[in-house]
């Protein structure tokens, strides 16, 4: 059974990775020729991504989802609010520090220490996980909370240095990836199961959306502390190899680093769970065995995924961007960016987790295919906007303020659950692949045209996090109208039957 599950997950990962791999291959043989060593490095990275994603998603189903659900259910039963909030801040911070998306992004921000970024963002998620819990407890409408929080974000954005602004918004999307998403959504499900109220289904979602805001505010506060002279970007030096052995050595040499990184990331969560298990939830030995096997799968999958993304994909994205910039055709840059955006989101492991959990909790009312298509369209639009920003240098606020305004207005039109799902999906879409491929692509274009990388290139993840919120909400409104039409038709049919019966009688 386990072997079959692994095969199924790897097969799903393969179908996700193939499209972006083919796009890179076609580009390398046509308009953006790449050297053989870069192509081989990319192919090895793609293979690692497939295997890593397969193992990770299976592990997430067996461990993080269960851990999140059980802890959420237990916390919902407790009365000491102050203790709960402290616990959630710690838990949210630990989960975020383990997030691979954040590590990938932090390594690309050469102007700040990566550990400073990770800790700042981690605290932001921790505090806002507590706020998300309070929102459910106090029975506040999600749209009202989001409206209030985003108002604070955009007011504060006018005081933040422009070199820091895009970076701050990017951090919000980078935190909600393959580690955080399974846990946070499962945590929300655990709470809703205990509450069992009318609106508990919609309360299962929306936590990711709130948690995505915390890092933005935390980074903005950090940005006001740093002087503007501190913001510099050092252009990346691209590696070249003379033979396949050197390429293999690069991957082999990086294995210990990522093994250490993943160990440091997962160990605090596992220790936290063990302590919580002994004190409160007390799962059976069989359940515990399943969770720990899942953690092993996550460990293997996350190590391979990070290795493939950082070593195999990152350089390719930058080089393609640079070569497209050298051609000097802006329309071509925008078109290829849109194409990449459409297919990259499908490869996100966290997207698969979200779609599975949405399908389960809504009993298939929100189909996986419809969600994936909405996300793909949204990310494609995001890349069009991002490339326009890269080429023109227009402030990110000119896109984010009207974009989120539209998203919040739509939330008053659609259903509560679609609003929650839409805002969650925005955070999920801006995952590891966005950090490891789309951001380097934007950086490569920036370097190619000589633009300010910190101002123009960063902000891609922010766009990727925003656009799907709109497209998913539009899908939700369409489903709502369709359902109302069918319901009205059924009601009309019932009335006609009654009339016929009366006349016949």
Number of helices in the DSSP assignment: 21
Amino-to-carboxy terminus distance: 60 Å
Strand content: under 5%
What structural class results from the helix and strand content?
A: mainly alpha
Using the CA coordinates, give the radius of gyration: 23 Å
Number of domains: 1
* Low-pLDDT ranges: 499-505
The run of helices and strands is HHHHHHHHHHHHHHHHHHHHH
Characterize the main sheet. Answer: none
> Which geometry do the CA atoms define?
globular
Number-wise, the strands total 0
Helix content: over 70%
User: On the 0-100 scale, what is the average pLDDT?
Assistant: 80
Summarize the structure in words.
The chain has 505 residues and is an all-alpha fold. The chain has one domain. Helices cover 83% and strands 0% of the residues. The longest helix is centred in the C-terminal third of the chain and has 45 residues. 54% of the residues are buried.
